[in-house]
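Thread: Modeling a multi-component assembly for a lab meeting

Hi all, long-time lurker, first post. My supervisor asked me to bring a structural picture of a complex we are working on to next week's group meeting, and I have zero experience with this. I have the sequence lines for every component (443 residues in total). Could someone generate the structure of the whole assembly? Inputs are pasted exactly as I received them:
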Amino acid sequence: MNITPDMKMADVLFHNYTLLPVVSRFNIRLGFGDKTVSEVCRNSDVNIDFFLEITNSYVDEDYIPQKELNTFPVSLIVQYLKKTHQYYLEEKIPEIERNIQSVVNTEKTINDKFSLVENFFTEYKQELTNHINREETNVHPYVLEIEAAALRNEISKELYSKIRKYSINDFASEHDNVEEKLFDLKNIIIKYLPPCSSSGLCNSILIELFRLEKDLNAHANLEDKVLIPKVAAMEEKLLAHYKA
Amino acid sequence: MERIKFVIIEKSYLIRKGIASIINRIEHATVVKELENLDEINSVLLKYTPDFIVLNIGILNEIGTFRNTEIKADLEQSGIGIDSGNGANKERYPGLREIISTLDERDDIYNKLQNLIREKVDSRHKLSQQTELSEREKTILKHVAKGLTNKEIAEKLFLSAHTVITHRKNITNKLGIKTISGLTVYAILNNIISIGDLE
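Re: Modeling a multi-component assembly
Sure thing. I ran the full set together rather than chain by chain. Output:
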C-alpha cells in the first residue's frame, strides 16, 4: 500500500516502524496526533513530494518513482543523502561496534573468533567511510554544479569538459560493493561462527545489520533510480546546449 | 541469487543495444558491459567475470590471431555468436556455445538465450546445495585469504587464470561469501589458514 498525503502520519508509522529513522532525517518529531502526512510535512517545512518518494521507496523496494512527482531539486536529495550518511556514521555503525565489542569482552571462550568479526567490521566501517567521503567531496558538489548550470541553462567550457571527463554514469558504475561485505558479515555470524552464550547480544547485532542493510539498499536505490537519472538528463541537456 | 552476467562485443550500435535489451528483460540475466571491439577484453573479463560472452562472429577471426588463448577455451562454454550476415550454423563455428542470427525470429532468440540461462541457473543451484569445499578449493581459498590475486594463484598452482576464477566462483556459491575479507574469516574459522599465515 502506498503512502499518500491524506493518510495519518501516525498510521504510516504504525504500519511501517522501519520508517522511524527516515522520518527523523526530515527533522520531523513524534507527537503527530491525528495530523495527516501533508499537514505534518507543511508544519515541518518538508517538501511533501520528496517525503512521499523517499518513504514509499523505503517501504517498497520495487516502488517506481513517479515521474510527475520528480520535480524536487537535486539539492534536496543531496541534503537527505547527507543526513543518511550522518545516521550511518554517527549512530548505526557505533551502535553495532559497541555490541560487537561487548561480545568480545564477555564471551571469553569464543572471543578470539569473535575478534575476527570485530576486525572485519572495522574494515567495513573504513570502506563505508571512504565511500561516503568520496560521495560528499566529489559527487555531491558535482551534481549541485550540474543543477545550477541546468537552471541557468548555460554551460561553461570547464563544466563541459568536466562532464566529458567524469559524468554521473561513471559514478553509477563505480558505485557498489559496500553491501557485499555487510551480507558476508551476516552470513558468517549466522552460519559459521560458534554460537554465543549470550544469544540476545548476537541477535541484536544481527538485527541491526539487517536494518543497516535495508537502509543502505534504500539509499542506493535513491541514488540509482532518482538522483542518477535526473542528473544524467540534465547533463545531456547541457551537452546538447553546448553544442548548439 | 546472483544474476547471470553477459558481456556483449559488437560493433553495431543497433545490434548491441538490441541484444542487450533482450537479455536484460530475461529473468536472472543482466548485461554487465558492452564493448565495440576486443581492445579491453582482458581487463573486462577479469573485472566482471561474465558467464556469457556475446560477440559478433566477425570478431572470431580476430580472436584466432589473438594472443590470449584463455578466451578461446572460454568461448566453448560461454560464447554466443552473433551472425549479422545470412545465417550461420553452430557446426560452422564449433568453438561457440550458441549462435544467434539477426534474422532469427523473436521466439528463437528468446528460447536460445533462456535455455542457456536456465542451464546456468540450475547448475549454480546444484552447487549451492553442496557446501563442502573440495581439497582443491580449500587450497585456492588459502591463497585468496593470503591476499594473492587470481593471476598469482594461477602461477603458483600451474592453473590458468580462468580455472582459478571458476574455482573462486564455486567457492563463493558454496559458502555464500563474496568478499575477500569474508572468505578470510571463513578460512580462519575453519582452520584452513591460521592467523599467523596472514602476516
